């Protein structure tokens, strides 16, 4: 109630003191840390906000919302390199390494363009040849979008030929069929 009243009156420094006391008394209450981050944002205290968001990530390493908040803050501060480095660091600890790498590639595509994302995919593929099929499919998608349809479809065909039937190749077959259909090869698309 006290905190709500201070927030309503825009007494943010006092609200921060109340939250700090709450954190000291109950350090496992995540909501306190989130409210603290929101107040630091309103106060425009960038270094303290960054530290608070990093602490939240450390407390909740699997929480994508917290990670997204930190990445969004970095982007809003035009610190794309810091966001990219954060995403790179998350890969090693990620329960799903492929998902973390995919997230990094998507971020690079958004911030530095498809050619930079393609270079990142090349590095991932070279570093993880046993688990490269989804990344080769992503690379093929970038190539297709860049007008390199023949290269893209050849890569997907190679991935399909190398993979056993099942989860890995079925979505890739669908992607290849769509590419073939888009380029006018309806017969080939139906055969997949």
In brief, what are we looking at here?
By secondary structure, the chain is mainly α. Helix content is 80%, strand content 0%.
Termini Cα gap? 63 Å
What class do helices, strands and sheet pairing give? mainly alpha
Q: What's the helix-strand series?
A: HHHHHHHHHHHH
Major sheet? none
Shape assignment = elongated
Percent of residues in helical segments?
Answer: over 70%
Task: Give a written overview of the molecule.
The chain is elongated, with a radius of gyration of 23 Å. The chain is built from twelve helices and no strands. The mean pLDDT is 91. It has helices at 2-8, 12-25, 30-43, 46-59, 64-76, 80-93, 97-112, 114-127, 133-145, 149-162, 169-182, 186-191. With 192 residues, it is mainly alpha-helical. The longest helix is centred in the middle third of the chain and has 16 residues, at 97-112.
Q: SSE layout and pairings?
A:
Blueprint: H1 2-8, H2 12-25, H3 30-43, H4 46-59, H5 64-76, H6 80-93, H7 97-112, H8 114-127, H9 133-145, H10 149-162, H11 169-182, H12 186-191
Entry keywords:
mainly alpha; 192 residues
